[in-house]
Amino acid sequence: MHLERDPADAAFREEVRAFLRDALPPDMAQRNLRGFHPTKADMQAWTRILHARGWSAPHWPVEHGGTGWSPLRRHLFEEECFAAGAPPTCTAAFSLVAPVLQRFGTPEQQQRHLPAILRGDTFWGQGFSEPNAGSDLASLRTRALRDGEHYVVDGQKTWTTEGHYADWLFCLVRTDTTVAPQRGISFLLIDARSPGITIRPIISIDGAHSLNEVFFDGVRVPVENRVGDEGQGWTCAKFLLENERAFSAEVPRNKRMLARLKALAAAQGLAADPVFATRIAEIEVELAALEWLTLRALSEHGSDAAGAWPAGSLLHVLGSELQQKTGALLVEALGERGVIHYDASDADHAAGITADFLYRRAVTIYGGSNEIQRNLIARHLLGP
Ligand SMILES: Cc1cc2nc3c(=O)[nH]c(=O)nc-3n(C[C@H](O)[C@H](O)[C@H](O)COP(=O)(O)OP(=O)(O)OC[C@H]3O[C@@H](n4cnc5c(N)ncnc54)[C@H](O)[C@@H]3O)c2cc1C
User: What's the CA gap between 127 and 104, in Å, rounded?
Assistant: First the structure.
């Protein structure tokens, strides 16, 4: 599908491709195309390469270091990066905490953190979920008690993606237990190396370590690290979660998975099988529809039309379920190699496909489970 009707957009795509050919180290691309979790070293090195070109945060406002590209160009850029095998930048930093700092942070907080994120100097982890507070996030119990010019934080966060890479954690903490749950929550920036923090790995179904539990035991956090007023954490969190859901159909990832499926089907002699070919075609049609829906949402972003349909939740549901469908077909295409016990250090691409299939069971859970997204869609369409 060719999206760029304007020749200038086609030229832009070529410019991005040329940049990727020159700047993306082939070994880095190979590692990322296999399907395992990106390493911190690769993410950091790639962020620095992008930063040198002024491209590390295309979606940020220009005054904070964004590129000023149109939504279509941002989409084309992301698509080309994914297709070439570029690792991601730190999502928790660039896409979650940075927009919150830009909207609610003080000039000092912005100055301290945004340039460091932009350069790839600091990695962040998202400390929202707790053992008994996931979908029902407002029931979180990690306490932050005021002690002079500090908060003292005690409690536990869980499922913290890349928490073991993080220099900083942004956390929702309870600062008041006497008011309605949402009104007693504050948003704190916590140095991940503070005394009293313990980070333990959670090994996921793919055998990998990307998730963590984070324990806080009397951790002292300066009051100046609170974003927004005390009790305003829920407002920051809602803004962040809406950003997280928005445009999360992951079309570039879905495209890369489809390309891999086609290549594998051809190699396994399945492309000529009419039943298998029909299933690939179904995925391709769903993906084309998803891409147009994403572009519609991107083009409406910030306009009055944006609130007319539940774009973020719809895209999240469709994009995540398509990843799972494509992943299942990839494993099927591997035949008996898809069920063998795999070793993540094995260079065979079957290992990456199986590991990715297993990890992608989580895409319908994180960022708000698909059941919750369907509730939001229903509420939007049917009313509260
Ligand atoms: C791979 C992965 C990475 C993650 N990364 C992070 C991270 O970096 N930081 C972070 O803070 N969190 C992270 N999470 C946590 C994630 O946000 C939660 O897992 C998610 O919000 C669901 O919460 P829960 O696991 O507590 O499940 P629960 O909320 O206990 O839900 C259990 C089941 O009940 C369903 N359910 C719950 N409430 C309703 C309802 N009202 N209506 C219908 N169905 C309902 C859910 O859909 C789910 O199927 C991650 C999770 C995963 C799996």
Answer: 18
